[in-house]
Amino acid sequence: MEIGVVFGNRSFFADELCLDGRRRLLRVLESAGVTPVILPETVGAYGSVQNREQALQCAALFREHDLQGVIISLPNFGDEKSIVTVLRQAKIDVPVLVHAFNDHLDQLNYENRRDSFCGKISVCNNLRQYGFKYSLTSHHTVDPENPSFQADLQRFVAVCRVVHTLRGARIGLVGVRPADFNTVRFSEKLLERHGISVEPIGLIDVVGRIGQLGEAESLQAVEEIKGYMSAEAVPAEALAKMAKLLIVLRDWINRNDLHAVAIQCWDALQKYLGINACAVMSILSQAGIPAACESDVAGAVSMLALQAAAGMPSALVDWNNNYGSDPNRFVLFHCGNFPKAIYQCESCRPVVNYPPILASTMGSENTYGSIDGRVKPGRTTFARITTDDLTGTIRAYCAEGLITDDLLATFGSWGVVEVPNLQKLMHYVCENGFEHHVAMTLASVADVLVEALGKYLGWDVYRHA
Fold it and tell me: Looking at the structure, do residues 81 and 185 belong to the same domain, yes or no?
């Protein structure tokens, strides 16, 4: 990730503070895997910005790169006018983090005092005057070596990933929504207004392309599925169909440069192809292409946002069952299309099977492809993005919880989850007309989503607590 770095400077402070600050911050950025885009030390006071000429040089440098964020760092008070000039002239709209170095009580003489505590207030004042959105470190001033700053940096990088991922995202839609699922309706035009495009393909095209594939072409994909999860119970004919579906979808995804997909997973696939798409969707999600079931395009966007925030795969689940009389626990469930990273794989390997509910009406022979498995215990974040045609806006909510060790006698893919004040969250979901689907990942990233979706994308975001 390329991040622009602006060091602010005031001429009557010691130039050596800029050199010290530059070297210390760049070491931390390098260890965090960030590629800094910064003026060379030969410009100004060790690559800092303190006048319009230097600001224009920095802006020109930034325009040459595909920056995903900008860090403004103040080794001393800094020059607020020059800093905002960089952002205005660079003409970039990315997340901005404002950082200020600590002063130390035994170094308040002329050579060492920074006054960054005060300068940060002035910089933020100017950023707001000029209409720039920005993020702050947890502590008003902080040394870059401090674990607090390094956590702030990781959070900021995640915010940058989410914003960069969603702006210009391309979502594939395979088939139409199931006729009985009004809940997954969405506004393609609202998504497009926010830079998210939808690329559709009909199920008849997918099934037709599968029919054009020979058996030999699918052998490698068959072995991939067998190696991915336990598939001993799946008939060879169903495995071959799953493999061909995987080949066709991958080819379509690659040719259309798609970042996530939503698939009409029932019941046409079962009727006319004779399989469930769950295991294929799981493989796609595990490989970084979130795959949402039931043609839930907004669900796919939610998965993509969570994946970018956490840097790991996400899943789409149902808010499915109460957990006895416990008001803060529920059962998440789906037929079984979660990525492998979501499942508890150490003690019980997930199994490719058929879903008893669909099989009861369509026959097990036509529904192989779902996954039986338990979600891995640990911290989790839930998120849902929706397009609201009534207000012409995009809305979202997010919440954090804990996947517990509780066991259930059930089928499909499932987990027991504890969420503080769950009843309050369920009231919010219902009162605001959100869908029954929610995306989840095994990380604590709700704060990242609030910052990325609310502050930088301008969506209406509720953070449950």
Answer: no
For residues 91 and 62, what is the distance between their CA atoms, to the nearest angstrom? 9
Which of 118, 150, 166 is where one domain is finished? 166
Whether residues 228 and 356 fall in one domain:
yes
In the chain, % helix, strand, coil (3-state, to 5) comes to 40, 25, 35
Q: Count how many domains the chain has.
A: 2
If asked whether residues 77 and 194 sit together in one domain, one would say no
C-alpha distance from residue 99 to each of 65, 77, 185 (Å): 22, 11, 42
Residue 169's CB: how many other CB atoms inside 10 A?
21
Question: Are both 423 and 288 inside the same structural domain?
Answer: yes
Q: What is the CATH number of the domain that holds 429?
A: 3.20.14
> HEC profile for 197-252?
EEEEECHHHHHHHHHCCCCHHHHHHHHHHHHHCECCCCCHHHHHHHHHHHHHHHHH
**And the tokens for 298?**
């907004």
pLDDT in tens, 246-288: 999 999 999 999 999 999 999 999 999 999 999 999 999 999 9
pLDDT, one tens digit per residue, over 437-457 is 999 999 999 999 999 999 999
Q: Give the end of a domain, one of 144, 166, 188.
A: 166
CA 168 vs CA 21, 194, 286, 324, 403: distances in Å: 35, 8, 22, 43, 33
> SS3 for 258?
coil
129-150 burial string, b = 16+ CB within 10 Å, else e? Answer: eeebbbbebeeebbbbeeeebe
For residues 61 and 181, membership in a common domain is answered with: no
Of 122-126, 393-397, 409-413, the poorest mean pLDDT is in 409-413
DSSP state of 456: I
| 326 and 187 in a common domain | yes
**What is the spatial order of strands in the sheet that 2-7 belongs to?**
35-37, 2-7, 69-74, 96-100, 135-136
For residue 86, the domain's CATH number is 3.40.50.10940
Q: Are 98 and 72 in contact (CB under 8 A)?
A: yes
The whole-model pTM stands at: 0.96
Q: Is 319 helix (H, G, I), strand (E, B) or coil?
A: strand
- Distance between CA atoms of 74 and 113, rounded to whole angstroms? 12
For residue 70, the enclosing domain spans: 2-166
Cα 61 to chain centroid distance, Å, stands at 28
212 lies in the same domain as 138: no
Tokens of 226: 């067998």
Residues 413 and 444 in one domain: yes
